[in-house]
Design goal:
The protein is of the alpha/beta class. Helices cover 27% and strands 25% of the residues. The chain is built from ten helices and 15 strands. The radius of gyration is 23 Å and the shape is globular. Residues 1-5 have low confidence and may be disordered.
């Protein structure tokens, strides 16, 4: 009996989008994260003949270009830097932005708890600066499908620039549409054709009918909201609708630890509340949802219903000037120094 190899042939598989940018020696146009001896980090974009200047000398980019990832390089004053490619979490926190980004801790929860799988058909709204879109595209892969809806063209341009920067060009699975999600998604997607819905918006309860229309039975709908009042109203709307399972909600907090010999203790600062996540699943048509026992009835006054504006829930307005600058930086592949 002849044994056959179970190892896949990597030479026969196409390179996934963005994979080439994550391997090999440093190249011109790449971002590099420099960390000095005191742990301070700066992110630069490599240019031929370029230089990274500080008050303690300067580091020629040509010293870094061609070196392997994880090298240690020395500037003109003898100070050393650890050179590494930024991770996704590093890129997200330093990329040009017009809107607040979904933090890595929340993006990871969304990908896992919404079960975003390779090849999945996913729709999302709104795009913001593209941070969550990048994580979703990595999860669905080249053979998947991500349709992102954004109301503001400026945000869509910033997101497109950031996505193309990290993947080295347009991603084959990504489609972006301008307009209100609840109006556009039912025009763009066939009923019951979507596996997952991800909403990062002010009033997700306004999208109940649209989500129920395009989401397949058993499909997952996950919402990212900033305040407890938004969380409450979204949950009550889902329960009252009758086409979804009982919603679950949570938040995640990240606390780093100081590690130095026996001095092991929590860091003084942590990434606390950034938003709530609420998840539910689409029931089959004609099915009556199981009712949770001993649930108090929630009521909203007309004053509550009229109060849903960005300012009332603490969103800061973004100036047109800042948006134009962020869009230019994203298209050019620039990043904020951190």
């Amino acid at each position: 009996m002849t044994e056959s190899s179970t190892q896949p042939s990597s030479t026969l598989l196409p390179e996934p989008a963005g994979a080439a940018n994550r391997r090999g020696p440093f190249r011109v146009g790449e971002r590099v994260q420099l960390t000095d001896e005191r742990g301070r980090m700066n992110t630069i974009t490599l240019e031929e003949g370029g230089a990274f200047h500080t008050h303690k000398g300067f580091l020629n980019h040509d010293v870094i270009i061609g070196q392997p990832d994880g090298s240690v390089v020395t500037n003109t004053a003898g100070h050393q830097y650890q050179a590494l490619r930024p991770l996704l979490s590093d890129f997200v926190l330093s990329m040009p932005r017009g809107a607040a980004v979904v933090y890595p801790k929340d993006a990871g929860q969304i990908v896992t708890m919404a079960d975003i799988f390779p090849g999945a058909r996913v729709v999302e709204a709104g795009v913001g600066s593209g941070a969550l879109s990048i994580s979703l595209l990595r999860a669905v892969g080249d053979a998947g499908y991500l349709h992102s809806f954004e109301r503001r063209q400026e945000f869509a341009e910033i997101a497109r620039g950031n996505v193309e920067t990290i993947f080295g060009g347009p991603h084959p699975a990504w489609h972006v549409s301008l307009g209100d999600f609840q109006d556009e998604v039912v025009r763009a997607e066939e009923p019951g054709s979507v596996d997952r819905v991800v909403l990062d918006m002010l009033a997700p309860w306004e999208c109940l009918d649209a989500v129920a229309t395009v989401l397949a039975p058993g499909g997952v709908w996950i919402n990212y909201v900033a305040t407890a009042t938004q969380l409450s109203r979204t949950a009550e709307a889902i329960r009252a609708d009758g086409r979804f399972t009982e919603p679950d909600a949570w938040e995640s907090m990240v606390r780093g630890w100081h590690l130095e010999g026996l001095a092991v203790r929590p860091e003084h600062r942590m990434v606390g509340h950034t938003g709530f996540l609420l998840v539910t699943r689409r029931l089959a048509d004609g099915v009556t949802p199981l009712l949770r026992k001993k649930r108090a009835k929630a009521e909203f006054s007309q004053e509550d219903l009229n109060a849903w504006t960005p300012e009332s829930v603490g969103e800061r307005p973004v100036s047109d000037r800042k948006l134009r600058r962020a869009a230019r930086d994203a298209r050019a592949g620039r990043t904020d120094e951190v």
